[in-house]
């Protein structure tokens, strides 16, 4: 695992957007071989989306051959509700970039058969050859997607009841009225995320600091589902200074020191791939 620390949330967004753009551009996707990208909602990825939109506007990135799968969606919230994750994604990203809407996948929280919907989502990811890069965010309780504390670390896309803490945290989007926050969601599972070839998680703000320390400084624990990322061979967490508040100085120093040489390691992997070598390690110093 790698941890990248930037001064503030815009700098985090810029780093991640440039990183994703490089991955997509290096992959050189085509209609037959699209780049499969997993995406989150929430306030944390907003700066990333802003920079991605700018890269598209500047002609440095295209989503024409990108297929997306979103992490989650509320159950029972009309698709056109201002707080549905469908509305969010089109408002904050998809309407401003060149992705064909037919290449956007978001779970349908109003499906008649919710279990069938979840199974079909997993099958569709598989049919696309899996997710190349999953970008995620976390809740204050360390949940990734809507994998609340206690979620199985082998979980796949399914119906999930939301933890009271999450309902409280998300009430800000529903006029601070907790009775208006949906009680259930459909979400990709922890294992769905772990199966992606690469995972990047954005963690910003002091209110996420405890979750970050639990996830990277302690053992793998279903009460902090982000900690499952320790099992992933190619995982990157990008945080701002505020989110490091609970980390040991030693942890911060370690990750800063490996960042300095990571560029050299990446260059070696790029060279290896360019010569036709099959790079099973991914390119991570982790
Ligand atoms: N299901 C989403 C998560 O995927 C997201 O990571 C989290 C954090 O949101 P924010 O970034 O606004 O703190 O919110 C919701 O719970």
Automatic annotation (TrEMBL):
This protein's GO cellular component annotations are: cytosol
**Matches recorded under PROSITE patterns:** GLC_GALNAC_ISOMERASE (PS01161)
Gene3D superfamilies, alphabetically?
A: 3.40.50.1360
Keyword match Membrane: no
- Can you cite a GO biological process for this protein? N-acetylglucosamine catabolic process
Which reaction is this enzyme known to catalyze? alpha-D-glucosamine 6-phosphate + H2O = beta-D-fructose 6-phosphate + NH4(+)
Asked if the Swiss-Prot or TrEMBL record annotates the protein with the keyword Hydrolase, the reply is yes
**Record-listed E.C. numbers:** 3.5.99.6
Q: Sorted alphabetically, which PANTHER family does this protein's record hold?
A: GLUCOSAMINE-6-PHOSPHATE ISOMERASE (PTHR11280:SF5)
Q: Which family does the record assign?
A: Belongs to the glucosamine/galactosamine-6-phosphate isomerase family.
Name of the featured protein: Glucosamine-6-phosphate isomerase
Q: What organism does the record attribute this protein to?
A: Antrodiella citrinella
Its organism's taxonomic lineage begins at: Eukaryota, Fungi, Dikarya, Basidiomycota, Agaricomycotina
């Amino acid at each position: 695992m790698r941890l990248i620390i930037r001064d503030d949330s815009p700098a985090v967004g810029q780093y991640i957007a440039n990183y994703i753009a490089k991955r997509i551009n290096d992959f050189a996707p085509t209609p037959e071989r699209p780049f499969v990208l997993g995406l989150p909602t929430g306030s944390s990825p907003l700066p990333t989306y802003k920079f991605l939109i700018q890269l598209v506007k500047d002609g440095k990135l295209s989503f024409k051959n990108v297929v997306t799968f979103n992490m989650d969606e509320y159950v029972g919230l009309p698709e056109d509700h201002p707080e549905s994750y469908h509305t969010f994604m089109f408002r904050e990203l998809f309407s401003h970039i060149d992705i064909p809407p037919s290449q956007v996948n978001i779970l349908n929280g109003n499906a008649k058969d919710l279990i069938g919907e979840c199974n079909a989502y997993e099958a569709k990811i598989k049919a696309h050859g899996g997710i190349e890069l999953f970008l995620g965010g976390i809740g204050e309780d360390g949940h990734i997607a809507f994998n609340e504390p206690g979620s199985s670390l082998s979980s796949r896309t399914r119906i999930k009841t939301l933890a009271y803490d999450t309902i409280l945290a998300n009430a800000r989007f529903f006029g601070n009225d907790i009775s208006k926050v949906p009680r259930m969601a459909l979400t990709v599972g922890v294992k769905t995320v772990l199966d992606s070839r690469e995972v990047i998680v954005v963690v910003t703000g002091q209110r996420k600091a405890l979750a970050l320390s639990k996830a990277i400084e302690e053992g793998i624990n279903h009460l902090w589902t982000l900690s499952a990322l320790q099992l992933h061979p190619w995982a990157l967490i990008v945080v701002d200074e505020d989110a490091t508040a609970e980390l040991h100085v030693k942890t911060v120093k370690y990750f800063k020191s490996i960042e300095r040489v990571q560029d050299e390691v990446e260059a070696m992997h790029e060279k290896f791939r360019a010569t036709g070598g099959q790079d099973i390690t991914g390119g991570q110093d982790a």
